[in-house]
Amino acid sequence: MRYLPALAATAFALALWQAVVTLTGLPRFILPGPVPVAEAWWQNRAVIAEHTMITAIEVLIGLALGSMLGFVTAIQLATSRVARVLVQPMLVFTQALPVFALAPILTLWLGYGLWSKIAMAVLIIYFPVTSSFFDGLMRTPRGFLDLAQTMQAKKRAILWHIRVPAALPSLASGLRLAAVYAPIGAVIGEWVGASKGLGYLMLLANGRAKTDLMFAAMLTLGVFSVLLHLAVRLATKRMAGERR
Amino acid sequence: MTPAPGITLEGRATIDGDLLFAPLTLSMAAGKWTCLLGGSGVGKSTVLRLIAGLATGAEFDGRIAATDGAEVIPRVGYMAQDDLLLPWATVTQNVALGARLRGERPDEARLSGLLERVRLADHADKKPDELSGGQRQRVALARTLMEDKPIILLDEPFSALDARTRADMQDLAVELLAGRTVLLVTHDPGEAARLGHSIVVMTQMGLTDCAPPAQKPPRRVDDLETLATQGALLRLLREEAA
Ligand SMILES: Nc1ncnc2c1ncn2[C@@H]1O[C@H](COP(=O)(O)OP(=O)(O)O)[C@@H](O)[C@H]1O
Ligand SMILES: [Mg+2]
């Protein structure tokens, strides 16, 4: 069975969690065990589903926009020397900043709604997508370019028929990273200011000492992220040049 | 195809100020195979890439000209040891690559005719990783022929193949490239002896012309004179290296 390892790992993690709770004897509002968390999840399933939906929308839109933006930027960087000189250092600089620090400003600019969270997700995935794809575009096998040159190829045609397809596996690894980062971005946005979403629900539950609900929301986010990552992995299989 | 011209390369090359090859003259007869034979690192690929107008690590000081006075570079077709097939494209798409890269429509009839001639018609829709090494080089040959250039530069295209496939490939290349001016760079004395209308040995000292066997290429693999030439070429390579 291919799912056996995943099931075993889950069972092991749950057992470990229960063991820590039992051995330390910590009260429920500090560290709830798996059973109360499961109960809280079931009792609040409608609320959790509603907030998950919001976060999922933010993440998916952010993922789509950030990926497109990264794709276009990488192409620009790879085809224009001027763009490389002007934009590349800026890109690295923005990456050196803690993006979290921008979250309050984004809320100020874009308001409390979806867009500040989407923007946060875009910001956080933009760099991994851009830089993976750009690296791939700059590593086209020399021989392909030589061959194209002897065929009097047009620059545009070399880009779309050789450089881009040769860089697709790199783009795929960028997108897979993005799938992991995007939910983090959205949740950070929700923490700073929101009235909806799993991040908001976690803060709310925490503030009311409903630690079990907090854990239930957090685990839901975790499961969502893992599923998203798997989906993106599957979707990029051909792109990455992997056999089914 | 436009008529095949002869080509002359005259000059010297340096890498970071160090001499790669001293002033030399390499002449290729129009419509014939010239085999440039030499050990690795003497600068064979550099010579070939200079003629093709490709980047080399060397600084070339000299001239490259065709006997008809027209430009050389746009008339060059190129094949390397690596078949350079795009792994994501089918055999057909790979053969039609040149047209696609120039934004032209490939000539479908010519394309399928060429696939017949390299005996790959049944594999037209396969990807390169579904083919053997010999089949892949035949795709590369078809791609080169599709370009229909009068000057063909071959950089050890057969050296990764097993002995039998290599001999088959050599026969096929001679047949299909007939009438074009071919420069074959190789480190294999046997290959030079089988294929060259003229044979030039390249060493640090420069170029040495060697008499080719009397038989017409592709010479029989067991032709005694060809075998003797192979031996003589190998001896020359070993002496020069010492
Ligand atoms: N791009 C490059 N930059 C610097 N040196 C190079 C480059 N390409 C080849 N060389 C050097 O030039 C010499 C000749 O190379 P090459 O023409 O490839 O030889 P051959 O094809 O005969 O094996 C070698 O010593 C090699 O290290
Ligand atoms: Mg070489």
From TrEMBL, chain A:
Q: Which Pfam families does the UniProt record give?
A: BPD_transp_1 (PF00528)
Topology of the protein relative to the lipid bilayer? Multi-pass membrane protein
Instruction: Extract the InterPro entries matched here.
Output: MetI-like, MetI-like_sf
- Provide this UniProt record's keywords sorted from A to Z: Cell membrane, Membrane, Transmembrane, Transmembrane helix, Transport
Q: What residues form the membrane-spanning segments?
A: 59-78, 90-112, 118-137, 213-235
Keyword Secreted appears in the UniProt entry: no
Q: Does the keyword Lipid biosynthesis apply?
A: no
Q: Name its cellular compartments.
A: Cell membrane
User: Locate the ABC transmembrane type-1 domain: which residues?
Assistant: 48-236
Q: Principal localization?
A: membrane
Per the similarity annotation, which family is this? Belongs to the binding-protein-dependent transport system permease family.
The name of this protein is ABC transporter permease
TrEMBL record, chain B:
Spell out the InterPro entries in the cross-references. AAA+_ATPase (IPR003593), ABC_transporter-like_ATP-bd (IPR003439), ABC_transporter-like_CS (IPR017871), ABC_transporter_ATP-bind (IPR050166), P-loop_NTPase (IPR027417)
Q: Which SUPFAM superfamilies match?
A: P-loop containing nucleoside triphosphate hydrolases
UniProt-listed Pfam families: ABC_tran
GO molecular function annotation: ATP binding
* Entry keyword annotation includes DNA-binding: no
Superkingdom of this protein's organism:
Bacteria
Report domain ABC transporter positions: 2-229
Keyword list (alphabetical) reads:
ATP-binding, Nucleotide-binding, Transport
Name the family the entry cites.
Answer: Belongs to the ABC transporter superfamily.
Q: What is this protein called?
A: ABC transporter ATP-binding protein
Q: What is the lineage of its organism?
A: Bacteria, Pseudomonadati, Pseudomonadota, Alphaproteobacteria, Rhodobacterales
